[in-house]
Amino acid sequence: MDENINEELGYFVGEYILMHFLPSLSVDGGYTRNIIQCTISEADEYNRLCDIWYKSYKRTDNNNTKEWIEYTDYRRGVEIKYLPHELKCHLSRVTPTNMDSFLNGLIDSLWNSDVCYYLLEKDTIKFEQDKYNTIITLKLQTEWEPWGTQK
Questions:
Q1: What is the mean pLDDT of residues 95-103?
Q2: 31 three-state secondary structure
Q3: What are the C-alpha distances in Å from 51 to residues 66, 70, 147?
Q4: For a pLDDT cut of 70, what percent of the chain falls above it?
Q5: How far is C-alpha 100 from the chain's CA centre?
Q6: Could you tell me if residue 144 is inside a domain?
Q7: Is 147 a member of any domain?
Q8: Is 57 inside a domain boundary?
Q9: What residues make up the domain containing 39?
Q10: Residue-averaged pLDDT of the chain
Q11: Nearest 5°: phi and psi at 140?
Q12: Residues 99, 141 contacting (CB under 8 angstroms)
């Protein structure tokens, strides 16, 4: 039971982070309350590359096409340019008794949002507390395996 409560607490905290802290880009389809504006020319290029990829997409492509790679490389460049590389989320103190389960819930919540650009691995999420607050720090994903090499 303790595991479930901690996972639910983590999921709730993830939803809170989504509603109050998580940024999104104006060029992206999913939005949070914290929208970061990109330039019109960046939005035009983003949409142009997305349209080219979408029109060329076939279910058998496995996302390793030239169009997909160009689109995602551009998208990642815009993400790295505008999004905070470290996102510090200050919230009222929460005290999970099982950190592993808590992080499972937090990661599930942020992953399910489809608008999280941050690393969602337990060893990359920093959890700190003081007497009154909890601070959860997320790191922006800035490196990826080259396309076509993923397993």
A1: 96
A2: coil
A3: 13, 12, 19
A4: 91
A5: 20
A6: no
A7: no
A8: yes
A9: 2-139
A10: 90
A11: -65, 135
A12: no
What is the mean predicted confidence (pLDDT) over 14-20? 96
From the CB of residue 136, how many other CB atoms can be counted at a distance below 10 Å?
Answer: 23
Per the model's pLDDT, the better-predicted residue between 32 and 146 turns out to be: 32
Joined together, the tokens standing for residue 117 give 């650009």
Q: Is residue 151 part of a domain?
A: no
Residue 62: pLDDT over 70: no
Supply 142's token pair: 């800035």
pLDDT band at 31 (very low <50, low <70, confident <90, very high): confident
> How far is the C-alpha of 142 from the C-alpha of 140, rounded, in Å?
6
CA angle 137, 142, 144 (to 5 degrees): 125
Is residue 111 within 8 Å of residue 124, measured between CB atoms?
no
Distance from C-alpha of 94 to C-alpha of 14, rounded to nearest angstrom:
12
Question: What would the pLDDT profile of 105-124 be if each residue is shown by its tens digit?
Answer: 999 999 999 889 999 999 99
Contact 128, 33 (CB under 8 A): no
Write the DSSP string, 50-110.
Answer: HHHHHHH--GGGTT-SHHHHHHHHHHHHHHHHHS-SEEEEEEE----S-HHHHHHHHHHHH
Higher-pLDDT residue of 34, 149 = 34
